[in-house]
Amino acid sequence: MRNVAIVGTGHSKFGVRNDVSMSELAWEAIKEALDEAGLEQKDIEYFIVSNTGGWSSEPLPAVVIGEYSKLVPKGTVRVEAACASGSAAVKLAYDMVASGHVDIAMAIGIEKMNESPTPIVVEFIGRAGNYFWEFENFGLTFPGYYALHATAYMSKYGATEEDLCKVAVKNHYYGARNPKAQFQREITVEKCMSSRYIAWPLKLYDCCPITDGAAAVILASEEKAKELTDSPIWIAGIGSASGTSNMSKRGTFSSLEAAVVAAKMAYKEAKINPDNPVKYIDVANVHDCFTIAELMAYEDLGFAKRGEA
Amino acid sequence: MRNVAIVGTGHSKFGVRNDVSMSELAWEAIKEALDEAGLEQKDIEYFIVSNTGGWSSEPLPAVVIGEYSKLVPKGTVRVEAACASGSAAVKLAYDMVASGHVDIAMAIGIEKMNESPTPIVVEFIGRAGNYFWEFENFGLTFPGYYALHATAYMSKYGATEEDLCKVAVKNHYYGARNPKAQFQREITVEKCMSSRYIAWPLKLYDCCPITDGAAAVILASEEKAKELTDSPIWIAGIGSASGTSNMSKRGTFSSLEAAVVAAKMAYKEAKINPDNPVKYIDVANVHDCFTIAELMAYEDLGFAKRGEA
User: Fold this and answer.
1) Which pLDDT belongs to residue B163?
2) For residues B121 and A49, is the Cβ–Cβ distance under 8 A?
3) A110: chain B residues, CB-CB within 8 Å
4) Chain B interface, best mutation among A44, A94, A101, A260, by max B CB count within 10 A
5) ipTM over 0.85 threshold
6) Which of A77, A220, A223, A228 is the one with CA 20 to 30 A from B209?
């Protein structure tokens, strides 16, 4: 297996982006990544577009984006892994470079959720679990899914709504310092606590917003990476696992079992001791669609003991 | 790059499959592939679900299918590359095994188009080109796209409607011998010629039907393949390319330029002389969504000279 490095990254501004088409939004991220890597479109041998979609007028965006960004006729595919779609695109691009099939691949993530009215988006995300069992029969939407996790976690470990709000306060603190973030104002625990309930115990500030945005990552083989940059980011390990989409078949609600399996795989590949991963890791970017998701991620990744995140 | 072989394949019966759920339909193919390879679900290290979707009630089918088929907690992703979605899944599974990341991966293709009424399916496929330019502004549906190709080809090379019908006659001849095919009756050129126009010059029998069906392919590393079977099918080369989705930006209507690029890549990898590929190939399975697509494929792949397919 060949070594693979990240040699360029790009991000669009996130938020309500009615000012641009889907292709224009993707290009903001693609251009930034190309510039950072010192590459042109012709150098990209394959591009993977991550898009869950369902809310956009362009339902099959890979080639549409490729055409606008002048990446055609390179090979392409759209990938979707629900909330993990972007990571899945990076993983597949990684496999492609690691295999020796190409030397330089690009993973592009894009969603333009605001192309649909909010009720349609809420319905679509609700269907994204297990439509037949939970959405059709019980009307369970995504805030509802995570509210089940939150109540289970609170019941088991005595966590409070304030504990959840602290996650939102931290994330808004960083958002206020990121010119590309959707929300750029700090909030307080009091502000979060007094926001309206979306699905008890989750309040407005416990929930991620509907958003438009794009990101791009360029991966390169060892040889190419060394040509392109003095500071390649080497990928030391990747893990990928799935859980039941049917909530009622899960063994626990205070953890995502798939995250535990995937973390073990990544740690093994990266030669990280799974009993003390914090020792090896300086920065972690975890999924925070709801505040409870971030707390569960800390524990599933082994950064904190159960109930102590 | 490691050698990769196909060690198991499976197919569902195709057609109107209101008798099964999406998961049950996928399982028909998955089970057949597992049985052929002599494997169990636990042996599959990663599964890729190809699904264009948009017509099904389960919009994110990868995990739903994995759960039903007892493939969870293995890693998974859904991929979409319009009409080439199935091939894209095989290509990504191939990269994953070739890289050494896994030894055994499964590519599963599934569509359940009959979950939506025909006008919705027609609209969705129409949007699958370039929604903004051609569907919204001109109402161009997929039979319309290929009708443009057919008229261009007929005008340039003097092909006739009868020539197109001969493709349909051949395909129905084989369908009549395949117990899993949607249509199992032979037709004549006369029957095709007298069928109603869908988009001139394409008639009913020039067009593929709306269908439900699933297929599965298991790929294995050289070492595993040799353990599993005495007759592995080695993958000698894969090519992948894209074209503009905007028809008005294509350089020609009597060819799919992306197919020419992809064929050259595959021939190079397989060490096939691109000037005479027929010499090396015993069987070809080309895209035949419309009869004209099959004729263009023969020429794009170099099996026949331009206008002689």
Assistant:
1) 98
2) no
3) none
4) A101
5) yes
6) A77
